[in-house]
Design goal:
4 domains; Rossmann fold; eight-stranded mixed beta sheet; globular; 28 helices; alpha/beta
Length: about 675
């Protein structure tokens, strides 16, 4: 690490713009030590540290197969297309690196052949897209959709051509040996470094739990980049979900397969029509659901709505039986039978309709078995209505025991890395939530001069954010800030309702162009913001993390309230109740730390480069009025701080301003940045 990262080392010789980054060197040393000692490591590396190279170099030089799991597919692409080729040039030899993604990112050759000549393409856009995909299929080596940037993210064609598991016949497919997914697995088995994303990693981990056939080859170490996202992702893949969309897709795919395979019949048409009608009636029972709510009285619901529940269950069973009786290749019906069986089991488990026979079948499912084994009430059952979709879900309340068993106790090194993991200078919260009982630790600040580059503004005389007058005053304060900053701002809100309310108050009162989340796909809205001078974007949690707008285009980030999770949310409520039942203080142990990390993410949108400058404004006076505000302030980078709008004006004008520095003591930041062995008390 010394030879690579220090002045005069390989990195400085390869980068004309190289700068000595002590945090990057320290992190690389700690990653190397964790791999060598087969220990775990938690590291917060502030923005600008260069953490990607700080973990890639020791992983590659360790000579062991390792996995890098990223928070997004975009970061995967950056690693493969930018960082790995750069390291190959520095090291002077080719690296055996493979990228793995979910099956929906890859083209299915069988579907492409099946669609050729079929009158199922609608409109010029689909016809044009199909022609482009067909040409690309002849030349691509990977079949990865990322090679087709011209194909829109909301393409209606791609879902009909992708290699999703639900429609895959596996080894029975005539294209199996030439399948892009098969080739992806082959490249991974031959690689020393495998790059995945969190969704694929934890989907694989759920399969590994019961030896259901893992996707990712065995490895000796794994690094999680953007590790602050792990808890929410684990909840998705170690929980179960049933939706009206799943039932509709099964009916549609069965109808298409019957047409292709020649096993359509009047009886199958009646079966599918019956399934659609039963699903519409059953999921229609949840029309009154506003967005997300608990579904604790499952038994009572099933008994009360027995007729519609039984109609849906019998319709799924009827389709399953019909598929078993078809005298045709299992290549056509195998995946459909498996999906019908899974839907039947999930429906019965979610509605607490489990007898001995169902239990035996469900225990063969890697996640349903977790629900059946849940003796301590670690799952919350809840409903969600999103657009035209209705979702019945079961989510683990705490993932610590799951991760301890499946990840941290596996013998290899696990490195958790992010710019936002520490709360008030401590990793205790994240280790407790994830079940990491012992680890090395490193907290290294970012590479930027935050006191010179950023000003934290907390206005005086703001009402309590729960006050009826808060929205009006917040709108007035935002107007003043935007006039001073000349737009160029994100206004980040903690709810959609507040976002729409503030947008309505502000957008008609300023001359700067205003965008609001929901005007199109997030990437489209973000691109429009980047390319519109003096623009203002009103957004919610989707834009709090993973958004990069360097330069003057984003010079002000305004946050309306401290981002406490909504306590009425079913999962949040269940976590609060469980901590309280265990004798803890949920506000201090869960709600404050999670909100502090969320605020840190939101403020992290502003300073992305050494040349960036900007103002961070928080309109919630609780950060200075309440005792717990110190936790939030001590968790943020060491910004200069002010409560005066005149200081904000001076900052933007480039004049000297009277920013006082942080008004609260920051003792935790003075801890030496050295490796410490930590054990969870």
């Amino acid at each position: 690490m010394e030879e690579f990262f220090r002045p005069g080392g390989r990195l400085s010789e390869s980068l004309p713009e190289w700068e000595d980054r002590s945090g990057q060197y320290e992190m690389a040393v700690e990653v190397a030590a964790a791999l060598e000692q087969r220990r775990h490591l938690v590291v917060e590396a502030g923005t600008g540290t260069g953490k990607t190279l700080a973990y890639l170099v020791p992983l590659i030089l360790a000579g062991k197969r390792a996995v890098v799991s990223t928070g997004t597919k975009n970061l995967q692409e950056q690693l493969i297309r930018k960082d790995v080729p750069f390291l190959e040039g520095v090291l002077g030899h080719e690296l055996r690196v493979a990228v793995m993604k979910g099956r929906r990112n890859f083209l299915c050759r069988q579907k492409l052949v099946d669609m050729q000549g079929q009158p199922s393409l609608h409109g010029l856009t689909q016809l044009s897209d199909f022609g482009r995909v067909s040409e690309w299929a002849e030349e691509t080596a990977t079949g990865d959709r990322s090679e087709l940037p011209e194909l829109r993210g909301d393409s209606k064609l791609w879902p009909r051509l992708d290699a999703r598991r639900e429609t895959c016949s596996g080894r029975r497919c005539g294209f199996f040996d030439d399948c892009f997914v098969t080739k992806m697995h082959q490249r991974a088995r031959e690689a020393d470094l495998i790059v995945v994303n969190h969704h694929l990693f934890f989907a694989d981990l759920a399969l590994r739990r019961d030896d259901f056939g893992s996707i990712i080859p065995n490895y000796q170490g794994v690094v999680f980049d953007e590790a602050h996202e792990i808890e929410s992702v684990v909840g998705q893949f170690f929980g179960v979900r049933l939706s009206n969309h799943q039932v509709d897709e099964l009916a549609r795919d069965t109808q298409a397969a019957a047409k292709r395979g020649g096993f359509g019949s009047e009886q199958l048409v009646r079966t599918l029509n019956g399934l659609r009608a039963a699903a519409k009636a059953f999921f229609g029972l949840f029309a009154g659901v506003s967005s997300r709510e608990t579904f604790s009285e499952r038994v009572q619901f099933r008994r009360r709505e027995a007729e519609k529940y039984q109609a849906l269950l019998q319709s799924i069973e009827g389709l399953e039986s019909h598929l078993h009786l078809i005298k045709t290749s299992s290549e056509d019906t195998g995946p459909l039978k498996s999906r019908a069986r899974t839907l039947r089991l999930v429906l019965r488990v979610l509605l607490a309709d489990v007898d001995e026979a169902v239990a035996r079948e469900a225990y063969e499912h890697p996640v349903l078995s977790l629900l059946l084994e849940d003796n301590r009430g670690n799952f919350v059952y809840w409903l969600e209505k999103r657009g035209k979709g209705v979702y019945l879900q079961a989510t683990p309340i705490q993932v610590d025991s799951i991760l301890h068993e499946t990840l941290f106790d596996g013998g290899g090194s696990v490195v958790l890395a992010s710019a936002t993991l520490a709360v008030d200078g401590s990793f205790e919260y994240v280790r407790g939530r994830l079940g990491l009982s012992a680890s090395n630790e490193l907290l290294t600040p970012g590479h930027f001069d935050y006191r010179r580059q950023a000003l934290l503004y907390m206005p005086r005389n703001m009402p309590d954010p729960r006050s009826p007058d808060f929205s009006r005053r917040a709108g007035e304060e935002i107007l003043q800030l935007l006039r001073v900053s000349k737009g160029r701002a994100f206004v980040l809100c903690t709810s959609y309702q507040q976002m729409r309310r503030l947008h309505k108050r502000v957008s008609f009162a300023i001359e700067h162009p205003c965008l609001i989340q929901g005007q199109g796909p997030n990437e489209v809205v973000l691109d429009k913001f980047r390319n519109t001078k003096n623009c203002v974007l009103f957004a919610t949690y989707s834009f709090w993390q993973g958004v990069d707008v360097p330069g003057e285009q984003l010079s002000c980030v305004i946050v309306d309230k401290l981002p406490f999770a909504v306590p009425s949310d079913p999962v949040v409520m269940a976590r609060i109740d469980q901590i309280r039942r265990d004798g803890g203080n949920p506000f201090r142990e869960y709600q404050i730390p999670s909100a502090a990390l969320a605020l840190k993410q939101g403020f992290g949108r502003l300073i992305r480069r050494k040349t960036d400058r900007g103002v961070l404004a928080l309109l919630d006076n609780r950060i200075v009025r309440k005792g717990y505000g110190k936790v939030f302030l001590n968790s943020l980078p060491d910004y200069a701080a002010t409560r005066s709008l005149e200081d904000v004006e001076a900052f933007f004008d480039g004049r000297h301003y009277g920013g006082s520095g942080r008004p609260l003591k920051r003792a935790t930041r003075q801890q030496p940045r050295r490796r410490r062995e930590a054990r969870l008390r």
